[in-house]
Design brief:
mainly alpha; 3 strands; 9% strand; globular
Length: 145
């Protein structure tokens, strides 16, 4: 194995470590959110992204980027959340072709209830991961200075 091969292996090991941490976080967040507020992680991500916008709305393309979803997956997710009356769609006043997705009052209330559950679960799983020697450096890199 040459130097280039070693570099590839180091990057691959780093990627596997990051993926392992992501899997742990995703699993814990799914469990906590589903049990407490009947939300999936991606549903929470969408509601949270909308709640952090001035006016609580975003274009569908922006929402897809924020949730790391394809346009079709975003549409399906928005449909489900709209059926639950957590958000609604409105036409853009400036561009009739544009559609905004906007939080409803129920959506705002739910994300506010869900945020501490999400944050506590995230803190818990990161603390557990920090105790594992192979994950500790990644957790440390995520910790604000």
């Amino acid at each position: 194995m040459g130097i280039a091969d070693d570099a590839v292996e180091v990057r691959a090991h780093g990627w596997r470590t990051l993926a392992a941490l992501h899997g742990m976080i995703e699993s814990e967040l799914e469990r906590a959110l589903a049990a407490s507020v009947d939300l999936s992680v991606v549903e929470y991500t969408v509601l949270d992204a909308l709640s952090r916008q001035h006016g609580w709305h975003m274009r569908m393309q922006q929402l897809a980027r924020a949730a790391a979803l394809s346009p079709s997956a975003t549409t399906r997710l928005v449909n489900r959340l709209e059926d639950r009356m957590l958000l609604t769609r409105v036409l853009c006043a400036d561009d009739r072709r544009g559609i905004y997705t906007e939080l409803t009052a129920a959506g705002r209330a739910l994300v506010e209830r869900a945020r501490p559950i999400h944050d506590e679960a995230l803190e818990r799983v990161l603390a557990d991961a920090a105790e594992q020697p192979e994950l500790a450096p990644v957790v440390e890199a995520l910790t604000p200075v």
